[in-house]
Amino acid sequence: MILEKLADYKKKRDFNKTTEPGDEEVSFDWAEGQLVFVVQKHQASSLHYDFRIEVDGVLKSWAVPKGPSTDPSVKRLAVPTEDHPLGYADFEGVIPEGEYGGGTMIIWDRGTYRNLKEADDNGEVPSLAVQIEGGHVTIWLAGQKLQGGYALIRTGKVEKARWLLIKMDDEGADARRNPTSTEPNSVKSGLNLEEMREAVEKKD
Ligand code: MN
Predict the structure, then answer these.
(1) How close is the Cα of 148 to the center of ligand 1, in Å?
(2) Proportion of the chain above pLDDT 70, given as a percent
């Protein structure tokens, strides 16, 4: 099942060239067995933030051009991308020029998350897979930069569907905070994009 979900991910990549992870099993000492999320800042052909949440053994992914906001009045476009392997939550570095997603990537934020949906009339809490299918996801993030509720909502007709990432109004909300500009560095290495690129070039 997981292998099927990752077929698209693998097809797009040449693992002789990229250092991105394959489908090896991983566990994260920072997650303590809980579900993980990661937001990667990715300078590819254009700068964006890859927002990923663990669902049924893979990372469901959206590319968010402007990155997540902490202001509940702000709606950020989120474009679905292919499922990524769980190991991707630990990846930062440089994807070679000319390869899929070529450019520098840092782990801008990461942590654990939980399902915020309440039980339906049958007493069942909708799974994240069901929520994604239905185009309405609500989760609570416990990251280093992002905290509190976030909603991912699909809007518009099927052929013109788009997703929006919206901060929910709770104690993690702050209209004056702007972490994408004031906290640009990796939560893993402490490096910014430029420093990451230089570090990798020096190593090669
Ligand atoms: Mn990306």
Answers:
(1) 24
(2) 100
Is residue 69 within 8 Å of 167, Cβ to Cβ?
yes
What is the rounded average pLDDT of the residues 95-112? 96
Q: Which residues pair with 44 in a beta bridge?
A: none
Is pTM beyond 0.85 here?
yes
The pLDDT, as a whole number, for residue 48 is 98
3-state secondary structure of 59: strand
Q: Residue 44 gets which letter from DSSP? A: S
Host domain of residue 36 = 2-203
Burial of 24 per CB tally in 10 Å (0-12, 13-18, 19+): exposed
- How many distinct structural domains can be found in the chain? 1
Q: In angstroms, what CA-CA distances link 10 with 6, 21, 57, 95? A: 6, 10, 16, 14
Nearest-angstrom CA–CA distance, 60 and 84: 7
Determine the distance separating the centroid of ligand 1 and the alpha carbon of 44, expressed in angstroms: 7
pLDDT of residue 158: 74
Q: How far is the CA of 3 from the centre of ligand 1 (A)?
A: 21
Q: Transcribe 82-127 into DSSP letters.
A: EEEEGGGGG--EEEPTTSTT-EEEEEEEEEEEEE-PPP-TTS-PPP
| Closest to 15 in 3D by CA, of 26, 4, 23, 27 | 23
